[in-house]
Amino acid sequence: MKVLVMIKGDGADEDKVAPTEAMFEEMNAYNEQLVNAGIMLAGEGLQSSKNGAKVVWDTSGEVTVVDGPFTESKEILAGYWIWQVSSLDEAVEWARRCPSTAGMTSTLEIRPFFEMEDFAKVVSPEVLAKEQALMDRVKEQHG
Amino acid sequence: MTDARRAVEVIWRIESPRLIASLTRLVRDVGLAEELAQDAFVTALEQWPVSGVPDKPGAWLMVTARHRAIDLIRREQNRDAKYTVLAAGIGDEAGADRIVDEPIGDDLLSLVFLTCHPVLPRDSRIALTLRLFGGLTTDEIARAYLVPSPTVGQRISRAKRTLAEAHVPFEVPQADELPARVGSVLEVLYVIFTEGYAATSGATWVRRDLADEAMRLGRVLAGLLPREPEVFGLVALMELQASRFDARGDGVLLPDQDRRRWDRTLIEHGLGALERATTLGRPLGPYTVQAAIAACHSRARTFEDTDWEAIVALYDALAQLSPSPVVELNRAVAVLHADGPEAALVALDAIRHDPRLARYHLLGAVRADVLVRLGRAEEAADELERAAALAPTQRERNLLMARSAAVTESPVLDVGGD
After folding, report:
1. The listed CATH number (3.30.70.1060, 3.30.390.30, 3.90.700.10, 3.40.50.740) that belongs to domain A2-112
2. Which residue among A57, A64, B308, B410 has its CA within the 20 to 30 Å range from the CA of B348?
3. Could you tell me the pTM of the whole model?
């Protein structure tokens, strides 16, 4: 199974700790373990939320644009990996081994990607075909 | 099941290959090494639910198993001269702690060369590799291959006995032997992969897990042999083929596949591996060339955009590296799209009477498609009927018969090439 692993921190902590060379080295060693284990398919880091923006809809459909940083946000995305693992338990075990930063809370959220089998278990082929047609249209719009 | 118990199970999968590799170097017997590793995990199962899972479970298990190994060797050394030699090499308990931090690469590599050793029959190599190098349980292997668990268990114990009786050394082969031995490892991984890739019925998802595991082990091997282009070539080939699993579904051919359903992550990773294989500056092998062919399809946004000239040239190269009539047949399909049906018919007629293709239904299927394009529908229908009689499954037989009936009605049919 393929999982998305999202690296999240607290918005209030985002610029509190400047990344040090030691932190980079530790993360590098961890990434190397993931590569050596043959599970790492992709991964990227994101810039600080002060360089980002949010587009937010309220319940009435009113749209607002919020510029970063998102200091109020409890969970700010800092990067992600895509792993290929044999089970969610295996992903959890690998995530447990990720280095953390002292003085900051952080979260690794692990979410499996949908595979066609997952749909086939719960919906009829007709509904599945409709869903697929919708997804195709979405992809067409985004090229 | 408690959390600690679940943790022990996944940690077995993650850690046991390294553990067994390291222990085999110590005790020189892969069967004994596996028992020592299992003992360490039994200890973990007893202790971790109470004490919690340690911060570095791999190091904990390594130290526990090594202490057991050293105890065993000390107990045995009075009785057996072999153990005296071993005991001389291992030192004290502090040594065991230090060894935990040593690089393990050569041990893991020695382990996979052992499990894929040519002295073993192919089925045993597959089972032993999945179990020791992949960290799968006997039950998991049995489920994936749809055979009873005891069958796999026996295959594995027989294989371990064979290795012991043949005194197969635990080592990375010398340079002159290396290409052939790497070839044996790659073959085992590719056979595991195609077992998953080719499955079109039954417990498909289990088979897909098998293909996933073969890809993972290929990536592990690429880390251990970073200068061997064919390892990267095989990884690329498997990933590019697997990227089409969803789009292929129950046998949809390449021209008809919905390319938006191809797995872009696997394609990116596969193209990266291919790039690595081709830039190592060493002669390319058949896996890399096949991956390069698969990459031509991956890069094409539509079937019509496919760079068929490049594919013909790559099949020419493949025919040089590993000549086979099936390669010539695939080349003829590429020629059809690159140069048209007249050229394809010439290519097909060159292999038409090859006895190795006499019972191969796809020759007739491809030749029929070429004949249809040349407007020779009657001959095409005959060819398809003959192909149907040779088809290995009822499903393919029906498809070919349906096409035979259709060619006399509608003039043009498309042909797939992969």
Report:
1. 3.30.70.1060
2. B410
3. 0.86
